[in-house]
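To: structure subgroup
Subject: Chain for Friday's discussion

All,

I'm putting the inputs and outputs inline so they're searchable in the archive.
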Amino acid sequence: MTVHLLGAAEIRALAAELELTPTKRLGQNFVVDANTVRKIVQLARVGAGDRVVEIGPGLGSLTLGVLESGAEVVAVEIDHRLAARLPRTAADHDVRSGALTVMDADALTVTELPGGPAVLVANLPYNVSVPVLLHFLETFSHLRRGVVMVQAEVGERLAAAPGSKVYGVPSVKAAWYGRWTLAGTVSRQVFWPVPGVDSVLVAFERDAQERGTDEERRRVFALVDAAFGQRRKMLRQSLSGLVGGSAAAAALLERAAVDPTARGESLSVDDFLRVARA
């Protein structure tokens, strides 16, 4: 498919047409560099026939890049003006009819995606990136892989391993679903307006087998919240409120073959699952 991608001048013209002033509240920093768009599409291994969901398409920079590959896209956009304009932008750039579906919705409330897309791509704002990703992975088991552009601090947390200084709640909860890796850095200059923070690309691959049941996931996430809610404390102390005291917590951890004097930052998601099952 021959699709013309958006450039900086056209993005500014679209914003002016919509009387759109990018807001920090919605994290609206639009990608104006075609090479960055194509890099994301390549990293996400998107090709003809793939079904892709894009969260926060904005003015359509990344959307057109995915459509250029021959994939079909479901785009979830919270800004009504942008959601209404996107189909016309796609048509103006030679996207074939039926290749794009736009959902005018808050991504955190979406519970159905037409076509069961297997790939997720997104340029996500700092304040909602982790909740949105966890919501989509929990709700849509058909999502198997993806690439997201997020603030560097968020991306580093998502991809962190146990023992890392930035390993925490997002790291463990994301790992429940699969493997996360840092896939590249992104210059501030590829955005309009230029953000005040650095961004990275994070790739994920869902595990072939489900790690546990929904009930076990809820238990694990409760343990994770407790363990990192008092990060400096030993697990026998930080988990005591969940299980009826530090002695009970210590006994529980020992049954799970976890050192009661360890801290949450040293445990993998599978360690937390053993504790949940114990």
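Points worth raising on Friday:
The chain has two domains: 8-206, 214-277.
The mean pLDDT is 94.

D.
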